[in-house]
Design brief:
This is Dihydrolipoyl dehydrogenase family protein. InterPro entries: FAD/NAD-bd_sf, FAD/NAD-binding_dom, FAD/NAD-linked_Rdtase_dimer_sf, Pyr_nuc-diS_OxRdtase, Pyr_nucl-diS_OxRdtase_dimer. With 443 residues, the protein is an alpha/beta fold. The chain has 14 helices and 24 strands. Helix content is 33%, strand content 26%. β17 and β18 form a beta hairpin. The longest helix has 25 residues. The radius of gyration is 23 Å and the shape is globular. The termini are far apart. Bound molecules: flavin-adenine dinucleotide and nicotinamide-adenine-dinucleotide. Flavin-adenine dinucleotide (FAD) binds next to α1, β2, α2, α3 and α5.
Length: 443
């Protein structure tokens, strides 16, 4: 029976982090993938999303920036073909990287036989340690007609853009879908069961985003949800809890994600899980001491994001070379909503600062008059810094801008490194750029 130091179940970003790190320490490693190499990020998440978003962004900026009379339409089928090429190339590179580093790869569904053995396509493999990196799947709703509902992954990989499109949920994925689809010419309606969108973000910035998308034709329906969906000659007919009836061409969900724990034989291996996912301790160890879990499948108390999955994977790849002796310590949180414009946050959030106003001071900085934003007609761009009253250090930031995802990473570096005003002004950078704007921000 093939025997390894480490077997990783799941060939997404979390699994890759663990496998590559462990291999770099000389471990004999195997990775098993049942569907497509690169997992959610590469195939149904940020990779296809960012290719589509680039086209939507170019479309959004075309008239303001060129002063042309009209904007050419997005050619969705050709854009989709390019997206698929990027995805296929990334997928291939993902698998090749494992093989180039001497990591064994298996394609098939892995299932535990016992705590030391798994089966893949009827073959048994054994290892000293296992890392579960099986990811998550979209949450489903149960209502009559839910068989017509698709998930966000289908939207980001769609060959054609539906003319009328309904999105369920008002979270991170919903806003990326609404921004792309509306810019590409679809009539978008977004249904949210309560009154709150993008719960963790500054409500003032979320309000700006809602107003902007609203102006561009996105119809937001709050405090309402879909109760039935039927196929008619004119398209899908939906009815909501509040009694509204509408016709649409496609319904996509973005209602959160649930850990992939089924069909893994976890009971055979003594691995416990609950609604949040696979139970792990502060060393990412499950209830079975030689089995660990990372990323979206693990019930660790951190956001289900690619940067966390990679970070956890690398932590395990390092610590599994010996008995892990130190608990995982997470860096400063940093994330972005890939909408048009974008929202991004790092460190202490505006909502957290508002809840602890004795400890934190908020500083609002308009950005629209700066060259970086003026040349892009980003006339709503703005930033909030969160400052610790005692240390006077910047401990958090939130940005609303088309390039918020870039600025937030610069700010995250300054915050993580706890740089003072003088230290930021000592940095020598190419001018003028988003990075040199930091001189003006850090005063
Ligand atoms: C639409 C969308 C957009 C996103 N955008 C962002 C973003 O911009 N930034 C960000 O940080 N995060 C983003 N995320 C979240 C990010 O994709 C996830 O946090 C990340 O993919 C988690 O990585 P993972 O390795 O834990 O799981 P996955 O990437 O889901 O990988 C798990 C892999 O395990 C395989 N697998 C499962 N069970 C088995 C089995 N029994 N045997 C063999 N293989 C198995 C699966 O096929 C899958 O390939 C996005 C998510 C979605 C859905
Ligand atoms: N840029 C990024 O970092 C990024 C992008 C996409 C996804 N992700 C990850 O993927 C995860 C899933 O994203 P998501 O947008 O699906 O989840 P989410 O948790 O961000 O949002 C889900 C939304 O659906 C709403 N909702 C729940 N039940 C509903 C119902 N019955 N009817 C209508 N609305 C309902 C919730 O109130 C919430 O607004 C995120 O939590 C994140 O971890 C990250």
């Amino acid at each position: 029976m093939p025997t390894f130091d480490l077997i990783v179940i799941g060939g997404g970003v979390g699994g890759a982090g663990a496998a590559i790190k462990a291999r770099s320490h000389g471990q004999k490693v195997a990775v098993i993938e049942q569907r497509d190499w690169g997992g959610t990020t590469v195939n149904r998440g940020s990779t296809p999303k960012k290719v589509l978003l680039a086209a939507a962004e170019a479309h959004r900026h075309f008239q303001p920036q060129t002063f042309a009379a009209t904007t050419p339409a997005i050619d969705w089928p050709r854009l989709a073909a390019y997206r698929d090429t990027v995805v296929a190339q990334t997928q291939t590179r993902f698998k090749q990287r494992f093989q180039q580093q001497g990591i064994f790869t298996y394609e098939g569904h892995a299932e535990f036989v016992d705590a030391q053995t798994i089966s893949v396509n009827g073959q048994f493999l054994t290892a000293t340690n296992f890392v579960l990196a099986t990811g998550a799947h979209p949450v489903e709703l149960a209502f009559p007609g839910n068989e017509f509902v698709q998930h966000s992954g289908s939207f980001f990989r769609s060959e054609r853009l539906p003319k009328r499109l309904t999105i369920l949920g008002a979270g991170i994925i919903a806003f990326a879908m609404a921004s792309i689809a509306s810019e590409a010419g679809a009539k978008v309606t977004l249904l949210q069961h309560d009154a709150v969108a993008l719960r963790a973000y500054d409500p003032e910035f979320v309000g700006l985003l809602l107003a902007d998308l609203g102006k561009r034709g996105v119809d937001f329906q709050f405090n309402d949800e879909l109760t039935t969906l039927t196929m008619t000659a004119n398209g899908l007919q939906g009815t909501t809890r509040q009694g509204t009836t509408f016709i649409t061409d496609a319904v996509y969900t973005a209602l959160g994600r649930a850990a992939n724990v089924g069909d893994l034989g976890l009971a055979n291996a003594g691995v416990a899980f609950n609604r949040q996912g696979i139970q792990v301790n502060s060393r990412l160890q499950t209830t079975q001491p030689n089995i660990y879990a990372v990323g979206d499948c693990a019930a660790a108390n951190v956001p289900k994001l690619a940067n966390y999955a990679i970070y956890q994977g690398k932590y395990l790849g390092d610590s599994l070379t010996a008995t892990p002796t130190f608990p995982i310590k997470y860096p400063l949180p940093v994330s972005a909503v890939f909408s048009l414009p974008r929202l991004a946050q790092a460190g202490v959030t505006v909502l957290q600062a508002q809840a602890q106003s004795a400890k934190y001071q908020l500083k609002a900085i308009p950005l629209a008059q700066w060259l970086t934003y003026q040349r892009e007609h980003d006339d709503q761009a703005r930033l909030k810094l969160i400052i610790n009253r005692q240390s006077q250090l910047v401990v958090g930031a939130e940005v609303y801008s088309y390039s918020a995802d870039e600025l937030i990473n610069y700010l995250a570096i300054l915050i993580q490194r706890q740089l003072s005003v003088a230290q930021v002004h000592e940095l020598f950078l190419a001018y003028p750029s988003t990075a040199t704007d930091l001189y003006g921000i850090w005063i």
